[in-house]
Design brief:
A: 280 residues, alpha/beta, six-stranded mixed sheet, B: 348 residues, mainly alpha, 0% strand, globular
């Protein structure tokens, strides 16, 4: 269970987000929604301990994270960053195996059991055949899956994902969301995921936290909290929520209300040219 | 539960048999060849008896000259070359992983420049050999200490970059001081000594030098070996290593101390030998991969063999012995280019 208590985060005493409080129970997924630059990544980094909180605290399973060693924290929290390229050609298996570092002795290297855990994580994510390939030679989507496998191999209690679907194609995005939802449920993980797409939150989140202007606008059950008005407030575009039914289940999707050919604000090029010709 | 299917899919853990054998046999062959190479001709019988006596398997009376050549001249030099080559390569591998940059060498933090300055100063002051080496060692350690102190004062976004910049700064200052010392040195006596020393040489390596070289090098290797798992994870990047459970500050500090011990010890006894710590880790990484569990031993074995063979060349290529540092650069640079062109894939 992850609990944030009035957490303020930012750089060098300038708060980016203030008084963030929410709780994520095992099996739940919380989506962080907000515009670019609002501080979603800063919040995640502060929860992980990469940044010092400016105020408030983070608790996992009732105990505060401050004062815990890196190894202890890593056994509780796992991070899936946005995919990147490491400078050395590690194999995909090596990348996932690095997730076992917190469980391996300080002066030791991963043992046979650790290697099995890593392999199982690869299989769970469906990328077992990629194990021997160099990480640098697989696609962005496959790298994202490898990073998630690494987090799974870490066997944490809480999983933090930073915009995991950013580099994925449409099909992979949907598959990833389903995977995250399943992981949270099957492994009883508390999952926090930041995302740019409200549709993603509607698909896989139990809870949603909407963030704007340095504070949490609303936080609660995803279906209740994500409304057209709120999304318009955050993103500045008019949005409608539409419900569709399929095979007995209902799903809500966002439909933007911008007309297809609205002229952008600014001088009308046709009128400008005419007036220019007339005056010259 | 581990099913047989899962087990079967696990990638191989160690090295293939041929590579493993090659890595272990190469140094042994190199040692055997190196004992035989030299100005004083040794017959096969001499070599055989010397080996048996050396291993304690025989009490045969060796001719005086053979004993002196093998045990007092060549073997100490062989040991020095292997320890220096292995130490520089291991330090280079550790630094390349830590700084996540394949172009980094062990003197990036100023250890070599500092040691060079200490040695030049010792020669200027007319100290005896052991004192010169001790002064070089201390100055090498101090240079890295100054770099680290500087880096901790400069608050930058990327601690690694700040450390490298501080190291380059300190290295440049010490190199300039060396040049100043050369300018002030007596051109008939001290200057040639300083210049010769700076070019790197094992020609004066004898038994008395070995402890100063071997003890810090062994300490350094042991520390790096103990931290091999943590170093591997550290090479994924600072933030990721932190979230994966590595105490990056402490591991990095320990690795820098270890690598500095190894580099300063090598430079103090053998002079400036460059390109070994840069080239050998690349070759080792191309053979066994970037994980330190395999990369460290491979760097040690390859580095010791490489420097031993280059030193053999240095003392047998011509009538005059060639400076080791010059030879490692002349051989090392083309090797590096070749390695770059072959294994260029996979670097960011």
């Amino acid at each position: 269970m992850l609990e944030l208590r009035e957490l303020s985060c930012g750089y060098r005493a300038t708060p980016v987000l203030r008084d963030v409080s929410f709780t994520v129970e095992p099996g739940e997924t919380l989506c962080l929604l907000g515009p670019n630059g609002v501080g979603k990544t800063t919040l995640l980094r502060t929860v992980l301990g990469l940044l010092k909180p400016l105020a408030g605290e983070v608790r996992v399973d009732g105990r505060s994270l401050s004062g815990r060693s890196r190894r202890e924290t890593a056994r509780l929290l796992a991070y899936v960053p946005q995919a990147h390229t490491p400078p050395f050609p590690f194999s995909v298996f090596d990348v996932v195996l690095a997730g076992r570092t917190a469980h391996v002795g300080l002066f030791a290297t991963p043992a046979h059991e650790d290697r099995l855990v890593a392999m199982k994580a690869l299989e769970l994510l469906g990328i077992g055949p990629l194990a021997g390939r160099p990480y640098t030679e697989i696609s962005g989507g496959e790298r994202q899956l490898a990073l998630i496998a690494r987090a799974v191999a870490q066997e944490p209690r809480v999983l933090l994902l930073d915009e995991p679907s950013s580099n994925l194609d449409y099909g992979n995005q949907l598959r990833l969301l389903e995977l995250v939802r399943r992981l949270a449920a099957e492994r009883r993980l508390a999952v926090v995921m930041s995302t740019h797409f409200p549709d993603h939150a509607l698909r896989c989140a139990t809870t949603a936290a909407l963030v704007k202007d340095g504070a949490v606008l609303a936080c609660g059950p995803a279906d209740a909290v994500i409304t057209g008005e709120r999304l318009e407030e955050i993103y500045g575009v008019p949005v409608e929520l539409v419900e569709r039914g399929h095979n007995g289940s209902r799903v809500r999707v966002c439909v933007p209300r911008i007309a297809a050919h609205v002229a952008p604000p600014g001088p009308d090029p046709v009128k400008e040219t005419e007036s220019y010709v007339e005056t010259h | 539960m581990a099913t047989p299917v899962l087990e079967a899919q696990l990638p191989a853990r160690g090295l293939g048999r041929p590579l493993l054998v090659a890595l272990v046999v190469a140094p042994v062959l190199a040692v055997a060849a190196s004992v035989a190479i030299g100005r004083y001709p040794l017959s096969a019988a001499d070599l055989l008896w010397a080996a048996l006596v050396g291993l304690g398997l025989s009490s045969h009376e060796l001719p005086e000259t053979v004993a002196v050549v093998v045990f007092d001249l060549r073997l100490p030099r062989i040991v020095a070359a292997m320890v220096a080559g292995g130490a520089l390569s291991a330090a280079g591998a550790a630094y390349q992983g830590m700084f996540r940059n394949p172009l980094v060498s062990p003197d990036i933090l100023g250890a070599a420049a500092g040691s060079g300055f200490g040695a030049a100063l010792g020669i200027m002051l007319g100290l005896d050999v052991l004192a010169i080496q001790a002064l070089a060692f201390v100055c090498g350690l101090s240079a890295v200490a100054v770099s680290s102190l500087l880096a901790s004062r400069l608050k930058g976004a990327d601690p690694m970059l700040v450390l490298v910049l501080a190291g380059i700064l300190v290295g440049t200052v010490f190199t300039s001081l060396i040049t100043l010392l050369k300018y002030l040195a007596d051109p008939y006596d001290r200057l040639p000594a300083i210049t010769f020393w700076l070019m790197g040489s094992l020609s004066s390596a004898n038994r008395a030098d070995l402890p100063l070289l071997v003890v810090p090098a062994v300490i350094g290797v042991v520390v790096l070996f103990l931290l091999r798992g943590q170093l591997t994870t550290l090479s994924f990047g600072d933030d990721e290593a932190l979230t994966l459970g590595v105490d990056t500050g402490r591991v990095r500090a320990a690795a820098i101390v270890a690598a500095t011990l190894m580099t300063a010890a090598t430079v103090s006894v053998c002079g400036m030998i460059g390109w070994v710590g840069l080239v050998v880790p690349h070759l080792a990484r191309a053979l066994v991969g970037p994980s330190f569990r395999l990369l460290l031993p491979a760097s040690l074995l390859l580095g010791s063999t490489y420097l031993l063979l280059v030193d053999d060349l240095a003392r047998s290529l011509g009538p005059l012995e060639l400076p080791l540092g010059v030879l490692t650069a002349i051989i090392g640079a083309p090797c590096f280019l070749y390695l770059l062109s072959r294994t260029g894939r996979g670097w960011s």
